Amino acid sequence: MKLIGSYSCPFVRKISVILLEKNLPFTLVHAVDNTLSSAINPLGSAPVLIDAQGESHSHPSLIAEYLEWLQPEPALLPADARDALRVKEWAALADGVTSAALALVSECRRSADAQQEQRLWQHRARLRSGLDALEQGAAEGRWLNASLLSVADVAVACMLGFINVRRLMPNWCVDHPALVAMADRLFSRESFARTLPPATAGLYSDETIAARV
Fold this sequence. Notes:
The protein has helices at residues 10-21, 60-70, 81-108, 117-140, 151-166, 177-187, 190-193, 206-212, and strands spanning 2-5, 27-30, 48-50, 56-57. The chain is an alpha+beta fold and 213 residues long. A hairpin with a 5-residue loop joins strand 3 and strand 4. The radius of gyration is 17 Å and the shape is globular. The termini are far apart. 36% of the residues are buried. This is Glutathione S-transferase family protein.
């Protein structure tokens, strides 16, 4: 299989981690958003997974479900359909926070006079409220941060890794101890160590983003 994208994208990293956890061999084909052919993905966004039959799968949550079907073990979703739905809900929340983080990065990459304070505030508010909700779930440890790794855990860890690399909320860990402990545990796994984002200097100003958060 081929995975098209870059580890600098948290959604690409999420799919890569799932592939590694399931011991599914794949080749990473480096590409960034808006450079993909419409024949691969009409939206031009990553990740895109090309399976052994040459068919493409292009939405991260659907790719995750496809991989769960393709390789049921080790399971990243509970066998019970209702329990699986709860885990997917937590994964969707983590993906939503990731989308807010990506939107914040995009806005901060604009020139100072082109940035809109209202949008910056909205993106930061989504980040804070999402992290607060995920903290509660991680502290409870039922559907998130449980004894067995799940697709929700992977989504949360990739989101936290992205926030750290981009310095979007430098002090997020102060009020989210359960997420900190969860991230420390997951980042020690080989699947996360092998998918660290590359150096991204020059794509945007870290100092500008940190100063405006």
